[in-house]
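Re: that chain you flagged

S.,

Sorry for the slow reply, it's been a week of failed gels. I finally had a moment to sit down with the sequence you sent. For the record, here it is as I used it:
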Amino acid sequence: MCLPGTFGDIYDIEKFVSSLDGVVKVVKSQPSELSTKDLAVLRIPNRVTEEYIANNIEPVFKTKGNVRLATYFPSVNMKRTRTPENEERNSVGCFAMFGSLELQPEVREVVASIVERLKTSSRKSDSEFVAVDLWLEMLDQKGCQGFDKNSAVYLTQSRWDNSLDSLKDLFPKTYRKELIMPMDKKQKFLGSDSSEYEKVIDFYVCSESDVFVLAISGLFYAYVPGKRIGSGKTKIVVRVDSASAGSEPGNYISRYVSKKTHMAYSCFC
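Prediction finished late last night. Pasting the structure tokens below so you have them in one place:
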């Protein structure tokens, strides 16, 4: 496996390589004897079966000698599976999720500073720190508002928009990255070429919050709960239509938690 160019800017490469010793061979850059022109590029859906690998990947690898795999996600599925084949595959996924990635110190410090500021703001009013994966187009749709007005609310939405004013009226302590990130880090982590940094910061801040609220399903919803479940932070709230949810609070809890369907649960059995 060859690491992408930006990987080392975000994660500790030495930690990653050493943790995978004996599992898979990792190289930091593409070997000089390989030419990108000769590589066969295969688009592979996430979490494929051994049969799929045998039928679609191995024949090309045997013919070409080298392949580049581009993973795509036809659906977001992080549910636990019980077959022997899937249990073995899940064990690799568990290792990748909890045992191989460690942020570079500078990125870790930025995340820690944001999390600490939000937790401090919430503690002052004996409230919770709530992280919301928010898309602006979701604001005109009604959803759950069951939090103390003094809760510190972190939005993954990077830049402020006038449509967010109504949310700030409800929760005055509403923040986004550009307001609470250390000044000397903004140019690097919020610049025009910093989208990968922003995604990583959102992921780790949402993983550390007291409560995580999801506005819409997607890959973020697949991976943040896994990280949270691993650290025991299982307050994960999904946005649902209030009329269909009824009055039961449990209707707002992610099924990943209420039904323990996320594959992360299989990592701690």
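What I noticed first: Residues 105-268 form one domain.

Talk soon,
D.
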